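Hello Y.,

Per our agreement to keep a running log of every chain we model this quarter, I'm adding this entry. I've kept the format consistent with earlier entries: sequence first, then predicted structure.
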Amino acid sequence: MAEPFIVPMVAIHPNRINIYSEVNWDGVRPKRNPSKYLLGVSNDHKGKVSKVAKRKIGKAIEYLLFLAGDKRLPDTPHGKFFKFKLSFITLTLPSVQIHSDNEIKEKCLNHFLIEARKKWNVRNYIWRAEKQKNGNLHFHILTDRFIPWSEMRDCWNRIVNKLDYVNRYRDEMRKFHEGGFKVRAHLLKNWEYKAQIKAYKKGKANDWNSPNSTDIHAVYKIRDIKAYISKYCTKDEQNEGLIGRLWGCNQELSSIPGAQLVRDSQVDSALTALFDKYNPDVYNGEYFTTCFISFDMLQDPCSAALFNAFASFLNNHFSYNLQKYIPDG
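Predicted structure for the entry above:
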């Protein structure tokens, strides 16, 4: 068997370039010790997000933000427009959870994501599972698509009612308010009396068949969106007792190698020109070097070889066209 040889490589991402070496096996790669790798691996992380998962979430958020761009949508109640990058969605169960966490994910969350792709073209997303104070499982989803809130609520309620969660909510509300409106005194601190009356009238009008089980709002004005969302998605609070996977994303965001290039003379020249012109921050690890850049640096004509490789990667991996960003010169 031929000896392996080392290949100098770079991997280009929107905000960094990784410089490393790759072992190329010219022939059959040696087999790993099966006793080391065939041990069962549990999906139960006991409510903790691992360091590896945190890195994957951070990279997924980085690309989700990059691909999202700024969008303007009409705010119909006020006749104005509002800007947003991402939509932050919350999905809850309208009545007490009686199924396992994994069954809720499989039969409800998975079904919702499938329908979201078909109905609203939701292709890039990251979801996070958490436990509410009442013990119910609920989900947060980040996506770069706009979803009408009423359509989303109706869709989610229909899905969770496959497991009778809306039916049980209706029965509970009918019983609770059978003598007329009854105030929930323990909730007055966060849900004032007038708001409870309004919710009662609305629920009574539709016979409690449309619980407010969803929420959606735009993410735009936070100064450092990536840091804020990364911290939110990787926190360990409210996860005690949560069984199974804590987070997930679409396939394209789950594995992002970046634009990988062999460091030939053309690539080295582009790297040297970029470093000389911008003097970016650099982190030197034991087996790699990371150069922290901005997308503007990639657009510089001196970085054309790097930009073209990154544009090709985005097109092949995400079907995303960078044509409008092609630098002049």
